[in-house]
TrEMBL record:
Keywords: Transferase. GO terms for molecular function: transferase activity. InterPro entries: Acyl_CoA_acyltransferase (IPR016181). It comes from Micromonospora zingiberis. It comes from the Bacteria. This is Acetyltransferase. The keyword Transferase applies. The keyword Transferase applies.
């Protein structure tokens, strides 16, 4: 690596980041230029690896204005070998005050496409070499229209009464099936979306939906229509039997408010929930794997 140069960008060099062709153009994500304009990306938190003057690795740590947490690695692309990426991360971590979290994004079904898999695996291998620990994979799913499955009519649904009812159900549920934007809530505001969703979802309580079986609450969902995308920000169950109908109710609530697309994030290991999302008409659009400092 004698001809390798690793360094941060300086102001005015933003186009250098984009001089590297996007290795995953099918992946929907905020562009680097838009991130710079919005203040989340900054040149001093953007590093490149150059070989013979060409960018062979690039990494950009994101921290939206007003965030309370540390920046996290949002963009990390490599055309060089993993050892180059590890060297880039080691240098950047030293300058940033230590290793930071990395959220490795990939297209849906990336494992099934050999060329895409090779692109995805290279920065992940570099992250491991740099000492980051691979964690859970989460899937982003998107509903973009179409008929919703008809329910059996066993359950009924209503708006939440007040924040106290929401907090009580959240405490009883404990581990929800869907959390959309949980990483952002944690990194930007220090909020655990599973345990304290109202600290992040500050809309009216009546926007939440409560599932009932013979008048007893058995499920809770937060259809959030005013987020960056209309989304099911939270969905938790006290009775697994209501999953299908609560999903349909949440989507119908958002479409009644004008949504043409609804997104939902789910842990990849929740196979039954993923299957129910797909039966409801959602399709997988992204995978995201968390890496954390050791």
């Amino acid at each position: 690596m004698t001809d390798l140069v690793i360094r941060p960008l300086v102001a005015g060099e933003e186009e250098l980041f984009d001089s590297m062709p996007d290795p995953l153009p099918q992946l929907r994500q905020v562009s680097y230029a838009d991130g710079i304009a919005g203040g989340g990306y900054r040149p001093e938190r953007t590093w490149v690896a150059l070989r013979a003057g060409q960018v062979v690795g690039r990494a950009a740590w994101l921290l939206p204005p007003g965030s309370v947490g540390d920046p996290w690695l949002e963009r990390f692309d490599l055309t060089a070998e993993p050892s180059v990426g590890a060297a880039l991360l080691h240098a950047a971590h030293e300058a940033l005050g230590g290793p930071k979290a990395y959220y490795a994004a990939a297209p849906a079904y990336w494992r099934w496409q050999p060329q895409v898999r090779a692109v995805v695996e290279t920065p992940k291998a570099a992250a491991r070499l740099a000492g980051l620990v691979e964690g859970d994979e989460r899937l982003r799913c998107s509903w973009t229209g179409g008929p919703l499955p008809a329910g059996a009519g066993r359950f009924s649904f209503r708006p939440a009464i007040n924040p106290a009812e929401i907090n009580s159900l959240v405490a009883r549920i404990g581990d929800p099936e869907l959390l959309t934007g949980a990483e952002t809530a944690r990194m930007v505001a220090g909020v655990n979306l599973a345990h304290d969703p109202l600290a992040w979802l500050t809309g009216p309580a009546h926007d939440w939906r409560v599932a009932l079986d013979d008048g007893e609450p058995i499920g809770l969902a937060a259809p959030a229509g005013d987020a960056c995308y209309p989304m099911i920000a939270y969905l938790g169950l006290l009775d697994a039997a209501v999953l299908s109908e609560l999903l349909v109710d949440a989507v119908a609530t958002l479409t009644a408010g004008g949504a043409y697309e609804v997104v939902a994030d789910v842990d990849a290991h929740r196979v039954a929930v993923v299957a129910e999302l797909e039966r409801t008409g959602f399709r997988r659009v992204r995978s995201r794997t968390a890496f954390t400092p050791a």
